[in-house]
Amino acid sequence: MNILAIESSCDETSAAVITNGEIRSNVVATQLIHTQYGGVVPELASRAHQQHILPVVDKALNDAKVTKKDLDAIAFTRGPGLLGALLVGTSFAKSMALGLGIPLIEINHMQAHVLAHFIDNPKPAFPFLCLTVSGGHTQIVKVSGPLQMEIIGETRDDAVGEAFDKTAKLLELPYPGGPLIDKYAAAGNPDAYSFPLPEMPGLDFSFSGIKTSFMYFLQKQVRENPAFISENLPDICASIQFTLVNILLKKLKKASRETGIREIAIAGGVSANSGLRKALTELGQTLNWNVYIPAFEYCTDNAAMIAIAAHFKFLENDFCDQTVSPLARMDF
Predict the structure, then answer these.
(1) Based on the domain organization, do 149 and 250 belong to the same domain?
(2) I want to staple 112 with a disulfide (CB 3.0 to 4.6 A). Which of 184, 233, 304, 309 is the partner?
(3) Which residues, at least 6 apart from 42, have a Cβ–Cβ distance to it below 8 Å?
(4) CA-CA distance, 119 to 33, in Å (whole number)?
(5) In the chain, how many domains are there?
């Protein structure tokens, strides 16, 4: 069973091939053009996907030593993501599947992040809790099976990844700023500065307030000392990272206590953050959790996670309706 998977939800064009549940190739083309704009420009992302998708798919097939005739299905990211970027991947996948006469599988991007844990060993046992953290999402997901997921907590406003990038921008760090916060934090003191933690009911999150608090903090400090940021950058980064990670783990700890689940995983781009990975590992040891952290290559957007999600859907014959009828256009 060979499946070609395509990911194009934001600024990564990626293709992967999976054979009987084993990843054979995973090719990612990164778009560097957005760096000069301080964030992803949707129109530029769509155009870059158009340029990259053919060579990326071709390389994924070659690396896997699989031809188009060997494919049994094609999978693609349906959403969430940037509309124009998604359209490039969706249109390519649909036309290729129709041309080859094989099934088409649509994949939810966030569910794929969760299922990335089933690419390599060790794999979590069901049920498990997965903290999915990225630039656009912050969720606690109860996972009862490969295709059985329930969101039990999520952000009410901004995502934690957006909070990392916004604080980095306030520090005048280049885009993407989240990884740079992590880099400088490694040499800083996380207790140097304190920021208020949001009080949200249940298992939900909020990150808009911490961004505002951080902005006012910097404004006050810079007024008193214009060189404050440059003189204290590691400590500032360590302190804000500690605060953001603390917000995440406080809710995750509560979710584990309420559900009784001790199988705990993280996923999404922010799961590459070394501060989060270390703090979760230490908390897991304290609370006797079984903790699962994905390899770095499967944290950020990639087609391998789309492929493993497609593998499970293929086993359930969960395919898209590819019926094409001109009558629908003529039915007034």
Answers:
(1) yes
(2) 309
(3) 82, 83, 84, 85
(4) 30
(5) 2
The boundaries of the domain holding residue 250 are 122-294
Instruction: In whole angstroms, give the CA distance from residue 302 to residue 284.
Output: 27
Q: What values do phi and psi take at 139, rounded to 5?
A: -140, 150
Q: Could you give the angle at the alpha carbon of 241 between the alpha carbons of 162 and 299, nearest 5°?
A: 60
Q: Are both 8 and 139 inside the same structural domain?
A: no
Interval 264-289: pLDDT, tens: 999 999 999 999 999 999 999 999 99
Q: Give me the pLDDT at residue 329, please.
A: 45
Please state, in angstroms and as integers, the Cα–Cα distance from residue 128 to each residue in 18, 110, 124, 155, following that order: 24, 16, 7, 20
Q: 43: domain CATH number?
A: 3.30.420.40
User: Do 269 and 199 sit in the same domain of this protein?
Assistant: yes
pLDDT tens per residue, range 137-165 = 999 999 999 999 999 999 999 999 999 99
Same-domain pairing of 214 and 65: no
CB atoms near residue 129 (< 10 Å): 23
Q: Tell me, yes or no, whether 9 and 100 share the same domain.
A: yes
Residue 218 has pLDDT above 70, yes or no: yes
Residue whose structure tokens are 């999402």 = 137
Same-domain check for residues 273 and 197: yes
What is the per-residue pLDDT for 37? Answer: 66
Mean pLDDT over residues 217-245, rounded? 97
**How much is the pTM?**
0.91
Longest CA pairwise span in the chain (Å): 71
**Residue whose token pair is 């560097």:** 32
- Token pair 């390899």 in the structure block, residue: 295
**What is the structure's pLDDT at 136?**
85
Neighbours of 130 (CB within 10 A): 28
**Would you say 117 and 124 are in contact if contact means Cβ atoms under 8 Å apart?**
yes
Q: How far apart are CA 135 and CA 29, in angstroms?
A: 19
